[in-house]
Amino acid sequence: MKCKFCLCEIKKPCFDLGNTAISNDLLTNKTLRLMEKTYPLILYICPKCFLAQTEQFQKGFEIFDEDYVYFSSCSQEWLKHASKYVDNITNRLALTKKSFVIEVASNDGYLLQNFVKQDIKCLGIEPTKSTALVAMRKGIPTLVEFFDLDLAERLVLEESKADLIIANNVLAHVPEINNFIASFKKVLNSEGTITIEFPHLLNLVEKNEFDTIYHEHFFYFSILSFKKIFNKHALSIYDVDELDTHGGSLRIYVTHKDNDLDRSGNKKNVNKILQKELDYGMDSVECYSKIQDKAFNIKLNSLQYLTKNKLKHKKIAAFGAAAKGNTFLNYCGIGKDIIDFVIDETPYKIGKYMPQSKIPILDFDAIDRERPDIIIILPWNHKDEIIKKLSFTKAWGCEVVIFIPDFKILS
User: Which pLDDT belongs to residue 74?
Assistant: First the structure.
């Protein structure tokens, strides 16, 4: 395999999770008994640029089709995060009604709706029709397209260069990384800013967050690898924030190399994170072997807990039909014989089934109807928000647990 960024030969895999279905390909009653397609899920580390990556088996339009089921607005915490970001970035960059903001992978308008309220001109670019239509109904101009050089060139011809480009948790989903970054550069104003949020690879390695590995994610980023990527495209990281989202994320601030913004940026923050990565050994391929060892320990501990309770005839449910949950379930070999059902609050998911494990997805009210003895929070990165929603289960002594980053009984 060759690195998708620098084309260096990668001879040895880092972590093989086996063959799994696409994490967001939920099953319906019609497809439940059909043969599922599964693909190898293997993590590789480039020995030259240290970009963590998986192989590509599906085209973008096959993964992000019109039936795509992830809607950002379903999480109240994520909505608050987006609103706070808009307030902060508007002040930081002194954005006005004359400014122009683009969000790539704008989903259902969860973030851009805040710019619309301030009468700041904005544009969403979102390839999934199901989410884009929701955004349009909110009055957010949205292009139902993939962001690439062709689209960037069209925007430039329309004199639609951006003062701010937002890309939250999207770069991992784009196999043509060089095309994507070049598209940013082309459509960014001379003193414009790109903000990019992404789960920090250091946390994946250090905190056992292996369930963030799935087929939709082609890349897992560090400052170490990002600096090399942006340098190739004459872009520069001029500041960085550490965030609590998604188990520990970074927000980087990027602009054209050597412009006024770059020269006045807070490089101390960038160098601090970079040094933390180097101190952990992330400039050595051997560092990443820790992922497989830690994941295997989680697998053994999870299976031990679940089988012990199943032998006692406990009713076991899970909360959140999230992509990361499917990676966890399928890597551990947990199916509907162990977990009776999964609860989700997204209307588009209810009545469907988890891929490969075939666990049915039920509505939130099913918790009270079924009264499970144990609930496993699969999207553990939202555990604080979810545990509040599940507080009523204390009435019958329900045990609420997470397995990642470590096994913990929350209530």
Answer: 64
- How far does the chain reach from its first CA to its final CA, in angstroms? 45
Q: Supply the mean pLDDT for the chain.
A: 93
Residues in contact with 408: Cβ distance below 8 Å, sequence separation at least 6, in sequence order: 401, 402
What strand order describes the sheet that includes 162-168?
Answer: 142-143, 121-125, 100-104, 162-168, 188-199, 249-256, 235-243
pTM for this model (two decimals):
0.89
Dist CA 330 CA 2 (whole Å): 27
DSSP state of 379: S
What is the four-CA torsion angle of 161, 167, 172, 174, rounded to 10 degrees? -30
Distance of CA 124 to the CA centre of its chain: 18
Closest to 328 in 3D by CA, of 349, 366, 351, 359: 359
Contact predicate 177/171, CB 8 Å = yes
Tokens of 132: 């884009």
Strand locations in 63-187, DSSP E? 100-104, 121-125, 142-143, 162-168
CB 262 within 8 A of CB 227: no
Segment 184-190 mean pLDDT: 97
Residue 140 has pLDDT above 50, yes or no: yes
Which residue, 55, 52, 2, 54, is CA-closest to 283?
52
Give which of 355, 311, 313 is closest to 330, Cα–Cα: 355
User: d(Cα 386, Cα 326) in Å, to the nearest integer?
Assistant: 18
d(CA 195, CA 197): 7
Q: Which long-range contacts (CB under 8 A, 24 or more apart) does 260-269 make?
A: 260/191, 261/191, 261/193, 262/236, 262/238, 264/238, 265/236, 265/238, 265/239, 266/238, 266/239, 267/238, 267/239, 269/239, 269/240, 269/241
Residue 221: closest CA among 245, 201, 195, 194: 201
Are the C-beta atoms of residues 190 and 238 closer than 8 Å to each other? no
pLDDT, greater one: 103 or 411: 103
What are the residues facing 42 on neighbouring strands?
A: 16
Q: How confident is the model at residue 216 (pLDDT cuts 50, 70, 90)?
A: confident
Q: Which residues pair with 19 in a beta bridge?
A: 40
Give CA–CA dist 28/43, Å, rounded: 29
Instruction: For 74-131, list the strands marked E by DSSP.
Output: 100-104, 121-125
Q: Which two tokens stand for residue 40?
A: 């190898």
Contacts of 286 (CB under 8 A, 6+ apart): none
pLDDT bracket for residue 61 (50, 70, 90): very low
